[in-house]
Sequence to fold (288 residues):
Amino acid sequence: MQAKRTSSIFSAALLAGTFLVTQCPKAGAQEKANTPRDPSQSPAALPRPKSKATQTYPAAQIKTGELRFGAQCGFCHGRDAAGGESAPDLTRSGLVAEDVRGDRLGPLIRTGRVDAGMPAFKLDDSELNSIVAFVHNQMDKFATLSGGRRSVEPADLATGNAADGQAYFNGVGGCSGCHSATGDLAGIANRYRGLVLLQRMLYPGGRPAPPSPKAVFTLTSGQTIVAPLTAEDEFTVTVLDPLGVPRTYPRSSVNVKIDNPMSAHFVQLGAYTDAAMHNVYAYLDTLR
Fold:
């Protein structure tokens, strides 16, 4: 490709990357985080809580509650109430087990838990009672099944040592080369919990979106032009021109280098030991 043609397609556009950091945890929280949990006490190994009182509900009410729960609560708790992306498994909830026909669930649903990200719901008695009926029916149904849970609770992942994780983060892991506990990662444990935090750590994605990869072209004149990368393989590179139109170029015809802020995470996936991964997770979980 001729330098003239390349320079006419692109305008210099740099994408800034941001990432993570946080404040030092309080001494008590740090000491607790540095104490590995006894693996034999995994919540997954504990028996399900049993309902305080036997409760039966009409099938029609349960069905109505299933539809209402799916619409109002399913996105967070899962449509079957067994846990979702951001909220716990209600079929293993101690609160549900203690509830008797909505005496515990009703006030919680109507007032919400803003600190935990649960909004308040304005429901009439019929709607509320149908949701209560569905949740109790689900708890009873799951209690008859063998095997463990579908969901992963934050305590299930608490097997690492935060101090060792901090040492790995600032040392051999090289994480501090891009991230900071007092910068982009500050308060990350408040934004992400449990499995979501671990997933964010291993496979950065979601919101805010991680920095996008870029293709850096070097012209024969020595000038460099940067364009958003959309795809690449062994033979070609596809980028977006200033108008957002995809352009594909043979690697043999251009001098191009790919700048992908996520490449260090890809490398790290192959380098992590199980212990190091959980130690780093334990450290990130202290950044509140």
Remarks:
- The chain has three domains: 3-16+210-262, 27-34+156-208+265-284, 43-143.
- The chain has a mean pLDDT of 78.
